[in-house]
Amino acid sequence: MAAEHATHASFALAPATRAGAVLADGAHVTHRDFTDFVVDGRPLLFRLADLDAVSPLAADVPPVIFAEQVRALLLEAPAPLPGGRYLVYGCPECADLACGAVTAVIERDGEDYVWRDFAWQSDDHPDLRLNGYHGLGPFRFRGAQYREALTNLLESARGTEAQGRRVLLIGARAAVLNKLAAALRSIGIGADIGDDPAEVPPEELRAYGVVAFGRAVGEERRREVRAAFRRAGAEVAYVDGLAPVIPLLVAQTEEALDRRPEDRRRLAALRATEREAVVEVSSDCRVGLTVYRMDRLRRTHEHIAFDNVLSRGSHRLPLDPGAVRGDAFLVARTSGEVRVAAVPH
Q1: What is the CA radius of gyration of the chain?
Q2: What is the CATH number of domain 163-259?
Q3: Quick one: average pLDDT of 278-293?
């Protein structure tokens, strides 16, 4: 039965990203672009403090499957799970229910749509007492607003492809460029190594979302590259590589690819001093803070400085002086977001 006493909540959709990563042991985390649900002006995923997941409305699924997911949320198709339950957030790597997923009952109540009984589910029948999200929902959405948001998404997705997910790498060190390109491709981001974009057709330049410069690229060369992209009408973000450390460069690229407004980000800010990192989060979430340092012999050292749940607000996290000696950089990650900052000398 639909919730009888739930007041109306607003419903909207917004682009979201689950940032990928290259880990120290060689494993990788896949980059995923998806559409998130925004309830009363706040991404629904932000209400789940320590969840690495994406909605079923992922940008890289085939158009037919994407349309099926939208129609399911409109209740134009049978529920995919017993009990009228629908997947709200699933595993970003494989989308397999066995990995665990957030599900909810979605139903009609007159003209309204109601989402209720949210639960963590890894088989056909969730235990609401043990695994229910008791403080989440129920949400009652006005039918017209709900249908308009989803049908508009379906219309905009037809005949379109994900744009701006490719990265152009420009630098002097071929070994670093090749390793970075391979790392980006391993997490689902297209990467090309180039030298003269002026010779590239404009439509190809417009497919890029980021241009990453190596530290050896001079200012005149950078101006020429920017001018070529301006002539092509391409809106790209430019990244100045901080150091030839592949996980760090991947994190810089992921941060640049995230074009969401600041008020749609969980990891709101990252700053560094010689003694501490200042991390600001817009909702409760787990934050991992890693320090990358290059010594005088240009060897890379990695140090996990923090890994725990932070409450909403600004936090000062002390840094080990030995871990930030010399050229040091911070990478902060939440479930799906990343920020990078250099540690000042």
Answers
A1: 22
A2: 3.40.50.2300
A3: 94
